[in-house]
Amino acid sequence: MNKPLILVVEDDAPVRNLITTTLKTNDYRYLAAVNGATAILEASSHNPDIILLDLGLPDMDGVEVIENIRSWSNLPIIVISARSEDTDKIKALDAGADDYLTKPFSVEELLARLRVTQRRLSFMSAEMLSASSVFVNGKLKVDYVGGCAYLDGQELHLTPIEYKLLCLLSKNVGKVLTHTFLTQNIWGRSWDNDVASLRVFMATLRKKLEPDADSPQYIQTHIGVGYRMLKVE
């Protein structure tokens, strides 16, 4: 099984090199960003499994990065910072960080924190797989094994891309999926014309899902950001 994809957000070159070398030596896959704007772009484009985040970035505070990512994703964020005051730790954790590692740190401790997070990810994935291969949300049912979907007991006639969109949304119910994440997962790239195509396919999918276009139940648009599947009681 592939190791998680780690996004390393660190502007200090020696520290960044230490972290990425450690990850490479231990067979982790990784991406690197040197500022907050690039970190947010990489996170939305590649949907990494874990983020290692420095707070002292040149363009914005790391807490802002956490708050931005938390507005559309629950992916684990481990802060690695020279800020050792309790108030700094509390601020980062309250913003949505999952763990906090203070510089200077040992390579062994970093790897231990990653293993703990990886075990939690594996446990959550196993729980999701064991729960059911069928997704039910209100009158919508998606049979992942059968490769089909139903609304109020009637099979939906979806194109392959519409079905893939529906699966991506349903497997991330309650989360905002960015245009970049969706286009990367559908076409393996994210160009302007792909986003335009995404809007077209999303519109046709919604026509099949939403009886009342003026009062959508299942898919919510976040203008300029992406889409989210709502949980229907």
Features:
233 residues, alpha/beta, Rossmann fold, Arc Repressor Mutant, subunit A, 2 domains, five-stranded parallel beta sheet, four-stranded antiparallel beta sheet, 8 helices, elongated, Sig_transdc_resp-reg_receiver, transcription, cis-regulatory region sequence-specific DNA binding, cytoplasm, Stage 0 sporulation protein A homolog
Can you characterise this structure?
The chain is α/β, with parallel strands linked by helices. It has two domains: 5-129, 3-Layer(aba) Sandwich (Rossmann fold), CATH 3.40.50.2300; 132-229, Orthogonal Bundle (Arc Repressor Mutant, subunit A), CATH 1.10.10. Helix content is 45%, strand content 21%. The protein contains eight helices and twelve strands. A five-stranded parallel β-sheet has the order 2-1-3-4-5, with helices on both faces. A four-stranded antiparallel β-sheet has the order 6-7-8-9, covered by helices on one side. Strand 4, helix 4 (86-95) and strand 5 form a beta-alpha-beta unit.
Question: What is this structure's SSE topology?
Answer:
Blueprint: E1 5-9, H1 13-25, E2 29-33, H2 36-46, E3 50-53, H3 62-70, E4 77-81, H4 86-95, E5 99-102, H5 107-131, E6 134-137, E7 140-143, E8 148-151, E9 154-155, H6 160-170, E10 176-178, H7 179-187, H8 192-209, E11 219-222, E12 226-229
Parallel strand pairs: 1-2, 1-3, 3-4, 4-5
Antiparallel strand pairs: 6-7, 7-8, 8-9, 10-12, 11-12
